[in-house]
Input
Amino acid sequence: MRLLVAAAVVALVCATPGLARADAKADLEKAHNAYVAHKYDDAELRLRSLLDSATSELKDPDSIADARMYLGAVLLAEGKTDEAASTLEDLLIERPDYQPDPLRVSLDAVDAFTDAKVRLRDKLNAMQTEKVRRAQEEKAKLEIERQKQVLRLAMLEKLATTEVVVERHSRWL
Output
């Protein structure tokens, strides 16, 4: 009897579908769908949870940038222009090369993004200049290391081709 009950419990557990845990990309798409459906409170809540670094499973930089753009668009739609501008500026500082998809967000959001880009133009140019300078310094360091290796290899080859023969002569002979 116990075996029959245990088998029934196992069958029941196996037959019930488990909770399907949505991945972060699906959550992002659901947040975008809420934005498109003008359910801004729901979209904002979903996007903020996706962007929360402590609990979010969203790790892809492109998806994070899209989530920030959607959040900026939602905040604009809710009339929170200052918070939206701050969100879009954060997006630009993190990803200066980001381009919003005008088919996924409103024209007002694209315009606000462009305005934020204009406001941060000097800062973004300085960041780009610093990035180029660091890349050049790294390239110079690698070139110096490569030259050191070439010199070391040449010295080793020279030592390997040189033969020193020492003959000992005895005075008694």
